Amino acid sequence: MSLLDIHVLGSPILRRDTLPVQQMTTELRELVTDMFDTMYAAKGIGLAAPQVGRSERIAVLDLDKQPLVLVNPVITLRQGRSRREEGCLSIPDIHYEVERAGKVVVQALDVDMQPITLEGTDLFGTCLQHEIDHLHGKLFLDHLSILKRRQAMRDWDEEKDQYPDLLRRLTPEEIARLAAEDEELDSEADEHQRTDVR
C-alpha cells in the first residue's frame, strides 16, 4: 500500500484544470492504485488526481464496495436539483449543504481506456459531480452562497494551521483516528445510508 499526501485548500493545484489522459500507462495504473489506497485510508468515497498533486484527468470513487475509475469524465446531462451535505478530503472537517443537479449522466473511460456511461442520482450523483469538479479546479465551496462561503473560510482559518505546507499526511495516528471516527459513524447508520460526500 502506498499512501499519497493530500493537497488541502490553498494548494494551487486544486484550482488548475487537468489534462486529458491520452493513454493508460503502467505508471498511471500505479497512480490509480495509490489513489484508492489513499482514499480508503482517509475514509473518503472519492478522490481526484489534483488532490494528490497530479494533473491527469483521473478520479476514483467507491460507494458500497464498488470501486470505479473515471478517466476523462464529462457530464453530458444534468437534470433536477438536490441538496446534500458535502465535505472534502482536501478541506478536512468542513461540511456544508450543497445544491447540485439531482441526476447526471457521465461519459468517461475506465482504467482500460474503454468507454463507459454512468447515470448518477442521490449520493452517487453528488459524488460524480464533486469529483469531476475537482478535475476542473472547482471545489464544493464554489457552490455555496457568498455568506456561507465566507463562513466556510472562517471555519477553515481555524483548521488550516494543521497543514502549514498545504499537505495532509496520512500518518498511522491519523489513519487510526479516522478509522475510529468511521466506526462511530457506522454504528449510527449503515454505510449505504451515508448521506455526506467527503
Write structural notes for this entry.
By secondary structure, this protein is an alpha+beta fold. It has a single domain (6-193), classed as Peptide deformylase (Peptide Deformylase), CATH 3.90.45. It has four helices and nine strands, in the order βαβββββββααβα. The chain has helices spanning 26-41, 122-134, 146-159, 172-188, and strands spanning 6-7, 46-48, 58-62, 67-79, 82-88, 91-100, 103-109, 115-121, 167-168. A five-stranded antiparallel β-sheet has the order 2-3-4-7-8, with helices on both faces. A two-stranded antiparallel sheet has the order 1-9. Strand 5 and strand 6 (91-100) form a beta hairpin. It is globular and about 45 Å long.
Q: Identify the strand order in the major beta sheet.
A: 2-3-4-7-8
Strand pairing plus helix content: what structural class? Answer: alpha+beta
CATH class, anyone?
Alpha Beta
Strand content: 25-35%
Order of helix and strand elements from N to C terminus:
EHEEEEEEEHHEH
Output the CATH homologous superfamily. Peptide deformylase
Rg (CA only): 16 Å
Contiguous uncertain segments of 5+ residues: 191-195
CATH topology: Peptide Deformylase
Number of domains: 1
Which percent range fits the helix content?
25-40%
CATH architecture name: Alpha-Beta Complex
End-to-end C-alpha gap: 21 Å
Shape: globular
